[in-house]
Amino acid sequence: MKKSGFVIHRPTKRGAAPYWLAAVALASVWLLPSSAHAQAKSAIVPDNWQGDALRPRPDMKGFRALRFVTDTDYPPFHYYDEVGALTGFNIDLAKAICETLEVTCEIKATNWSDLIPSLDNGEADAAIASIRITKEALEAADFTSRYYATPARFVARKESELKDIRPETVEGLKIGVAKGTGHEAYIAEFFPDAAIAAFDTPETAQTALKEGAIDLIFGDGISHTFWINGVTSEACCEFRGEPYVDAKFFGEGVGIAVKKGNRKLAEILTYGLEQVHANGRYEELFLRYFPISFF
Questions:
Q1: What is the pTM for the complete model shown?
Q2: Which residues fall within 8 angstroms of residue 263, CB to CB, at 6 or more apart?
Q3: Fewest beta carbons less than 10 Å away: which of 49, 89, 161, 224?
């Protein structure tokens, strides 16, 4: 998305919603061990709330409605379902925030390129569309605390005997990454004895792993989840090792955008996010839309 010279990166499309729903329905649901489950939960809650304290309710005087805008082609976050209804994790999260704030909720779909302009011209109050909180994005809009972060994950072929991922266990192995990404930089810094195989796209790296040309791939956990459980992987591969969440390399996560300078609304929405976490609604929605965890 371009606005005033700034770029807000668009999420990679995931394909048609019915295909994604079918993939989830056919895939086996796996549960994280208790320690990993705790790590996953702590990694996706807003940074300034860890479950031990809640900020006081902000001044809501005159605040009676919220107008959200979102995109439509990033299932399961936001998409049109089989009957043409706008749905997804972002949509239900916006509704949950409105419920906890006790305000009327309006959610409209627009083009990705129109999200921030809709805030600037007053057509919407907030944009909830998996917008990453980057330096460029913060120059174009203000944001709530993050409501999820995408971890980086290793993927190996199922027949691989490599289970424990550490710098010394991958020495000399070929690790596929997308060129020019934080994932490539991370491997170069923390796994210096591995052989980096840089590909033009994550998809070409995935194909190389499936064909046995490389030993591992390292990249976005959401993208890998869809690929692992989709048709094109032919059930070849699975996650190995732990999730990696490092803001320096993988970004600050995803937040709800508001018009630049509207910190009051950002604080109100952050309060709403914390309440949705505290009452268990967030976890319920997350498990509904992501039964196959990318953490």
A1: 0.77
A2: 142
A3: 161
